[in-house]
Amino acid sequence: TIITTRGCPYLCTFCDVPYKKYRQRNVESVLDEVQACIEMGYDEFHFYDDLFNVNPKKVIDFCEAIERRGMTFIWDFRGRVNAVTRETLVRAKEVGLRQISFGVETGTDEALKYLKKGTTTAQVENAFRWCRELGIRTVADYILGFPFEKSHGDVKKSIDFLLKLDPDFALINVLQLLPNTGLYKEALEKGITEPNRWEEFSLNPTRKFRVAHWTEYFSVKDLYLMRREAYRRVYLRPKYIMRSVMQITTPHEFFVKIRGFLLLVEGSLWEFRQSLGKSKSGDTYNE
């Protein structure tokens, strides 16, 4: 894992990245670090910047530097859909790009505008389609429990868009109300979370502390149950299962995927027992 930049200039209302000034390391410095790791035996690299592809030029310059130095390694990064072009993806694929994690978050243009995401659903669809065509794996980072999701139908509509994208992987989280974010301030104004709870935690850390969620329309339990249902909708599709099996290349990957499948099934059995009133003594809901 390597960091090539600090900060993110975007103003998403759910994100607590504190540095809005975007600072880049010199590309030669980054590749010197990669080379040092290669010499230690590593050959796969994850660039974990909050925003790796701030613009297409940065990616092209990085690819040209890799080629100029004659380096060979597999890499992936976290990025934005509005800062990729098909040209940059083609170029990056030629020099080892394997996967991109895109912050999609939600499934309508109105919702993206509310979050000040700076992207559109058309840009999201283009990025995922290009990656699929070029053989670049995709991860869709998604969030449930936003203020505009007032019903199960709203959540279903958002997940419908995720299924339409058909990513290789999806990471679905429940919105966390983090300090110094727009949604946190909105939650304070509505009384959804208490003021000073983070300050109190910093003065007296405890394992009992829980990050607050937007509970105007759903309970915390309901939010996490909807997340589990969303995971099942993504990963238990016959089409996805077949593709996932075909992509297995190592025993480790096989066992990881089997474990994930069993966790999804176990959750389904737990809910079935609850519906029949036959849950085992001591069974509790676990976030």
In short:
With 287 residues, the chain is an alpha/beta fold. It has helices spanning 27-39, 56-68, 86-94, 109-114, 121-134, 152-165, 182-190, 197-203, 220-235, 238-246, 251-276; strands at 5-6, 23-24, 44-47, 74-79, 97-105, 137-144, 169-174.
Tags for this entry?
287 residues, alpha/beta, five-stranded parallel beta sheet, two-stranded antiparallel sheet, 11 helices, 13% strand, disordered C terminus
Any overview of this molecule?
There is one protein chain. The chain has 287 residues and is α/β, with parallel strands linked by helices. It starts with a strand and ends in an 11-residue tail after the last helix. The strands form 2 sheets. The chain has a 5-stranded parallel sheet, covered by helices on one side. The protein has a two-stranded antiparallel ribbon with strand order 1-2. Helix 3 packs parallel to helix 5. The chain contains 11 helices and 7 strands. 47% of the residues lie in helices and 13% in strands.
What is the percentage of strand-forming residues?
5-15%
Roughly what percent helix?
40-55%
Order of helices and strands: EEHEHEHEHHEHEHHHHH
Helix- and strand-based class?
alpha/beta
Rg (C-alpha, Å): 21 Å
**Uncertain stretches of 5 or more adjacent residues:** 278-287
* Overall form: globular
Strand sequence of the main sheet, in spatial order?
3-4-5-6-7
Give the N-to-C terminal Cα separation: 28 Å
Largest sheet: 5 strands, parallel
